Amino acid sequence: MSEDASRSGQPTSLMASEIAEAPAVAEALYVDGNIVARAAELSRRSFPFVVICGRGSSGHAGVYLRYLIETRLGLCVSASAPSVVTSYDRVPQISGALFIVISQSGRSPDLVAATRAARAGGALTLAIVNDEASPVALAADLVLPICAGPEHAVAATKTVVNSFIAGAALVAHWATDHALQGGLAKLPTRLADALTLDWSAWCDDLNCAPAAFVTGRGHGLGSVREIALKLSETLRLPAFGYSAAEFRHGPRASVSTMTPVLALRQADAVSQGIDDLVRDFRRANLIVHTCGGPGGTLPWLPDGHPACDPITMLLPAYCAIEREARRRGLDPDSPSGLTKVTETL
Fold first, then answer.
1. End of a domain among 163, 187, 211?
2. Where is the SIS domain (predicted)?
3. Among 180, 228, 275, 329, which is least packed, fewest CB within 10 Å?
4. Averaged over 94-111, what is the pLDDT?
């Protein structure tokens, strides 16, 4: 991209272009009829528990989906360990369960193997994928496409946003949660507004940091872990995403005045715990940037639905990380040592 393009405010990387597409692809997903159809199929069945399978950013979408399923449907959710199938050669005995695999590319061999094994073990398998013709999709009983379109930057952004939204919309219709449905309907507009938020103050404090932390809780934990991953892969900065509760069980000791903390706070039952942790950090003169709540230091929107706001918070973080990568002379589209499709067993 030319210097003139950069000055004009146009996207200067594929990652920036794809972040900017997030509101439009969210709109395309929300009006897609597959979500209602898949939710109707699940509503006709009874499941003893749910297993969610995903790696990296897809795994973070799975963490978010876990909270929604457990809070809206009361079903116990477990995380799949694909190596049990691929390395230890054991087929899980999950007859009658729902197995949900989340993958942007749908091409990682371990996810394909885990999905096939879950189906052989008696589970109903559902693939949340961007490519409906991918091996993961073909291995599953049901497919929920996320409708994000082609994504070329190695760091996934718009596909992550739509993976979060797809899971939330599935649960909203499955549980007949009208409030959540209403919050999701507003997401395309809120995502567009979030693109204008400048979180460069946070990145300024990352400049000389040897490591960084991201924290939150509940519905925000998936976003916490996702932002930490983007810091690591795009800025080559060791970053750690912890629950605000988990911080007090050990990781707090590793936070110093050289390791900035980003706190995500949605307005729900966990907000007080996040506020208490931020207050403790500030009393210790640690660097904390907060999104949300009366003590927020970063630009934010008026609070929306508390289960949807963690999705919206991804966009200003993505934008800030992409800009900081370019400022450091890094290529946000091709992080060192990474490829678009990660093949693990």
1. 187
2. 39-186, 202-330
3. 329
4. 94
| CA–CA distances in Å: residue 121 to residues 91, 116, 124, 344 | 6, 9, 9, 22
* 290 and 255, same domain (yes or no): yes
33 and 108 part of one domain: yes
Whether 149 and 205 map to the same domain: the answer is no
Whether residue 247 sits in one domain with residue 200: yes
Return d(Cα 204, Cα 223) in angstroms, integer: 21
Residues contacting 272, CB < 8 A, separation 6+: none
- Let me know if residue 252 belongs to a domain: yes
| Domain CATH number, residue 209 | 3.40.50.10490
| Domain carrying residue 86 | 3-187
- Exposure letters 305-340 (e unless 16+ CB within 10 A, then b): bbbbbbbbbbbbbbbbbbbbbbeeebebbbbeeeee
- Mean pLDDT, range 89-103, rounded to an integer: 95
Find all residues with CB under 8 Å of 35, minimum gap 6, and list them.
29, 144, 166, 169, 170, 173
Q: Which residues face 264 on adjacent strands? A: 291
For residue 204, the one-letter residue type is: D
Q: Each residue of 215-248: pLDDT tens digit?
A: 999 999 999 999 999 999 999 999 999 999 999 8
Q: Is residue 107 domain-shared with residue 216, that is, in the same domain?
A: no
Give tens-digit pLDDT for 150-182. Answer: 999 999 999 999 999 999 999 999 999 999 999
Place of tokens 């009006």: 31
Query: If we measure between CA atoms, which residue out of 15, 1, 339, 331 comes closest to residue 151?
Result: 15
> To which residue do tokens 């230890």 refer?
88
Please check whether residues 205 and 170 belong to one and the same domain: no
Give the total number of structural domains in the chain: 2
Is 311 found in the same domain as 225? yes
Q: Global pTM?
A: 0.94
CB 147: neighbour CB atoms within 10 A? 21
Q: Please check whether residues 223 and 131 belong to one and the same domain.
A: no
Residues in the chain: 345
